[in-house]
Design a protein that fits this description.
This protein is 50% helix and 15% strand. The radius of gyration is 39 Å and the shape is elongated. The chain has 4 domains: 31-187, Diaminopimelate Epimerase, Chain A, domain 1, CATH 3.10.310.50; 195-223 and 230-343, no CATH class; 347-407, no CATH class; 409-463, no CATH class. The chain has 503 residues and is an alpha/beta fold. Helix 4 runs antiparallel to helix 5 (156-171). The longest helix is centred in the middle third of the chain and has 29 residues, at 191-219. Strands 2-3-5-6-13 form a 5-stranded mixed beta sheet. A 3-stranded antiparallel beta sheet has the order 7-8-9, with helices on one face.
Length: 503
């Protein structure tokens, strides 16, 4: 009987020992096992072993939230019984800080207080942006005054609360305000800067409107009213409304759109003039390219086009300061002119006299010197032909220069002109949303109409887009992003600053 009782007692003893060992093992947390309070209700205190009571946790979360709203410093409190036995308290806390990303990414203004009650260790870790306001010596003295005395009495809640309040008093001291402004991203709005921002915004806007109008007048593309319209007062009113819409209303629409997508929340208003300059600068660049196309459309003669473009660039070189992108176009134009020097250099006739190049703006078709096949090559832009005439008009020389579409065509085996294009897709029956289409792939000449059939091709049915699903997806993504941003830290990092000790 004694042996049986002893056996049961021994068995129960080992079972109890097993569970207490398991419980002990569970309290030695690894980095991954520490609960992130931001992902568990959006708080600041991680208290997995229940060392702090609920009232203390609630008070700390409220205090730290208020603390962050006033100073923008992000603080995390982690208190556990034990942690990874392979790590020292500094290594563990430092890795935990950077794993969570405490503090704002731009300013690294985070602060972590890590506590292990079984090892009787505490450790502060500061982000690089908070070290100036909370240096190591300040954290050490704060811990000695408020943390350690309470911890020696096992009153962890009081020690942590008093420490957080003491750190708040340090941060909010007036003499620290100037230093805080160097690190923290959420600064108070300066009314003077706001007014200057609006002034710069308007000046940039008006200046660019003036530049656009000057470019249009130079190129002769400013829309002109008809004589009847010009006599009517209503047209003048229309112009005023139109200009107001362009100068004032459209930018406000852009600002509203930016606000809707959170852009204005991301960037301070003082950057708005810079953003506006970038937007209008790129718009002016696009307008400039359109203006070049307008000049090109006025000239069939390449030399006349280059000369007018050169004249325009020489007179309006200063628009580069409004749009640096245009400098690239200026550079490309210069390179093309340099490459064309030999092309437009006069050639000599049989009498060693300089010949005169035919102005193709006057004689567009190049008659009677070009054949119809050569003219077709010009139309499809495989060749540009320069026609040189002797001064007595008795001699002429034709020189061919590869044009923009030269590489897309080959010489036609039938007519001998570079007007033959390979693998042309010719639609026979259009595809619809209910049936497939049909096409043929051929080689064909644009001049003599020689055609060579290659094969038939089936065109796939058209597919209707589903904007509602994409909109829903975007909304869901946006909502998810917003939700995650409120339940996570700011992505800050630490270089190892802080202080620690024992009690």
């Amino acid at each position: 009987m004694f042996n049986k009782i002893s056996s049961k007692t021994i068995a129960l003893f080992f079972i109890a020992l097993f569970f207490s060992c398991a419980t002990f093992a569970q309290t030695a947390y690894t980095i991954d096992q520490i609960p992130d309070p931001k992902k568990n209700g959006g708080g600041y205190v991680s208290n997995p072993d229940g060392i702090l009571n609920s009232d203390d946790v609630s008070k700390l979360n409220s205090t730290i939230a208020s603390f962050e709203s006033q100073t923008n410093v992000q603080m995390a409190i982690v208190i556990v019984k034990d942690f990874d036995h392979d790590k020292e308290d500094f290594d563990f806390a430092y890795e935990l800080f950077n794993t969570w990303g405490i503090g704002q990414k731009e300013s690294n203004n985070g602060l972590l207080l890590f506590i292990s009650t079984d090892r009787r260790k505490y450790r502060f870790i500061t982000g690089t942006g908070a070290e100036g306001v909370l240096p190591d010596v300040t954290l050490k003295h704060t811990a000695e005054d408020y943390l350690i005395p309470a911890f020696k009495e096992n009153d962890f809640g009081t020690g942590i609360i008093n420490t957080v309040n003491a750190l708040g008093d340090i941060i909010l001291k007036p003499e620290n305000k100037s230093e805080l402004n160097q690190f923290f991203t959420q600064l108070p709005v300066d009314d003077d800067n706001l007014g200057n921002g609006w002034l710069q915004f308007i000046v940039i806007l008006v200046a660019f409107v003036g530049v656009f109008q000057m470019v249009n007048r130079k190129l002769g593309i400013t829309p002109s009213p008809s004589p009847e319209q010009d006599k009517k007062l209503s047209y003048s009113i229309f112009k005023v409304i139109r200009n107001f819409f362009v100068v004032i209303f459209i930018p406000f629409i852009l600002i509203a759109a930016a606000n809707a997508f959170g852009v204005i929340e991301i960037f301070e208003f003082k950057t708005a003039p810079i953003c506006l300059y970038g937007l209008l600068s790129f718009s002016l660049f696009i307008h400039y390219l359109t203006s070049i196309d307008h000049i090109r459309a006025k000239h069939h003669d390449d030399k006349n086009f280059m000369m007018e473009l050169k004249s325009f660039q020489k007179k309006y070189y200063w628009i580069i300061f409004f749009s640096p992108f245009i400098f690239l176009s200026f550079l490309v134009s210069l390179i093309k002119r340099l490459k064309s020097v030999d092309r437009f250099k006069p050639i000599l006739d049989s009498k060693k006299m300089e010949m005169v190049r035919l102005d193709r703006d006057i004689n567009v078709e190049g008659e009677p010197y070009l054949t119809k096949g050569q003219r077709k090559e010009e139309v499809i832009k495989t060749y540009d032909y320069d026609i040189w005439l002797s001064q007595d008009q008795k001699e002429h020389v034709i020189k061919a220069w590869p044009a923009e579409e030269y590489s897309k065509f080959i010489v036609c085996p039938s007519c001998g002109f570079r007007t033959y294009k390979l693998n042309v897709l010719v639609t026979i029956t259009e595809a619809t949303y209910s049936r497939e289409g049909e096409a043929k792939r051929i080689n064909e000449c644009s001049f003599c109409d020689k055609s060579e059939f290659l094969k038939m091709v089936t065109l796939p049915m058209l597919v209707k887009s589903t904007p509602s699903s994409s909109s829903s997806s975007y909304s869901s993504s946006s909502s998810s992003s917003s939700s995650s941003s409120s339940s996570s830290w700011g992505g800050g990092s630490s270089s190892g600053g802080g202080s620690g000790g024992s009690w």
